[in-house]
Write a structure and sequence with these properties.
This protein has 375 residues and is α/β, with parallel strands linked by helices. It has 13 helices and 12 strands. β2, α3 and β3 form a beta-alpha-beta unit. Its main location: membrane. Belongs to the glycosyltransferase 2 family. CrtQ subfamily.
Length: 375
């Protein structure tokens, strides 16, 4: 075995172990078939859905809301200057449509969420992205019950389970892992590190806390509203609980096509890494580096036709493939077969991350839904 092969295998093995520390577990709402301890009386709930040109994506969410058994909730869809049939579709499902006709109309998700919150009648507020969908008729009940059991203070945020339908959507696999890991609270150390903020697609809070911290109005202009809103709650010593959404809520990211996927992840990673704890960031960099090293070790050993090195390299490559698959399947239903060629997923992640850094550090802007966002 050459020195180079030894170094590649050593880094790969170290990175494999770092991966288990980096992503120890992804807790979900634990019901285990047992009755949820519900608050009495049940709090009234307002579901707020900011929507800009979501005609092609919002129907599954509205359909799942219409099927909920929770007795006291309203649905507000904030039409944020849409030019499609978003408002018509929302009205057809019985949702109340609010047109954000203020001076902030069309200025983004935070402005739309704030507009909806100001018109909410419920005591608790649930902000949902238009591309999400609730898993079953008791999802709202699970959310409300879990929030109550956590003290009904601050934020309960869920990262939806990613449902994949088209081949290119599997390119989001590593991104989903990194987004969850980057919240700092899913390592083997649990909550030792302060959370980076909240997940954005599903946020539940009570109205009093929301307005006390200034809500989405306080963070207007932030590129990643989820991280900024969570930080606003933390700054007021209010808790932020982040969990996985498996069995409660799902979404399909960027179904419009590959270009939208690139824009969406570029926006997220242009500034998101700033909130990740340095230890978690170091583990993440090591894990990604190890993915490349394990593939390089396999190629080097085959080229040199070194049976001993080949055996170790094959073991490491297979272990990395299984680990990456395990991590990704916590986040979504990604194609199992693609993880046999997992280095391609790592290469796409690295290339897009470099591009996002170029957008943020050189161009100082990213694109999203027709908007140019300064970063």
């Amino acid at each position: 075995m050459t020195v180079l092969e030894g170094v590649q295998l050593g880094i790969g093995l170290l990175a494999l172990l770092a991966g288990f520390v980096m992503f120890g577990a992804l807790p979900t709402l634990k019901t285990n078939g047992k009755p949820i301890l519900m608050p009495v009386p049940l709090p009234s709930l307002t579901v707020i859905i900011p929507a800009r040109n979501e005609a092609g994506r919002i129907a599954p969410l509205l359909r799942s809301l219409r099927e909920q058994r929770y007795p006291s909730f309203e649905v507000l869809v904030v039409d944020d200057d849409s030019t499609d049939e978003t408002a018509t579709i929302a009205s057809g499902f019985g949702a109340t449509v609010l047109r954000n006709d203020t001076v902030e109309a069309g200025s983004g998700k935070s402005a739309a969420c704030w507009h909806g919150a100001r018109h909410a009648k419920g005591k608790w507020l649930l902000f949902l992205d238009a591309d999400t969908a609730l898993a079953d008729a008791d999802s709202l009940t699970k959310l409300v019950g879990s929030y109550a059991q956590k003290g009904a203070r601050g934020i309960l945020s869920l990262q939806p389970y990613h449902t994949v339908q088209r081949l290119y959507e599997n390119l989001s696999a590593v991104f989903n892992v990194i987004v969850i890991v980057g919240m700092n609270v899913f390592t083997l150390w649990g909550t030792r590190f302060k959370t980076a903020g909240s997940f954005g697609p599903c946020i539940l809070c009570n109205k009093d806390d929301y307005f006390a911290v200034g809500g989405h109005r306080k963070i207007q202009g932030a590129v990643l509203d989820d991280l900024a809103l969570g930080q606003a709650f933390l700054d007021r010593d209010l808790p932020v609980h982040c969990v996985g959404g498996g069995g409660v809520i799902s979404f399909r990211m960027y179904p419009e096509g590959f270009g939208t996927l690139v824009e969406g992840w570029c926006k997220s990673f242009a500034v998101g890494s700033k909130s990740t704890h340095p230890v978690v960031m170091s583990l993440t960099i090591l894990w990604i580096t190890g993915g490349f090293m394990s593939a390089a070790a396999l190629i080097s050993s085959i080229a040199a036709w070194n049976p001993a090195a080949m055996a170790l390299a094959v073991f490491l490559y297979a272990a990395y493939a299984v680990q990456t698959l395990r991590f990704a399947r916590r986040c979504g239903n990604f194609n199992k077969g693609l993880f046999l060629i997992y280095p391609l997923l790592f290469m796409f992640f690295a290339a897009l991350h470099i591009y996002s850094l170029f957008r943020a550090r050189v161009l100082h802007s990213v694109k999203w839904k027709g908007r140019k966002i300064e970063v």
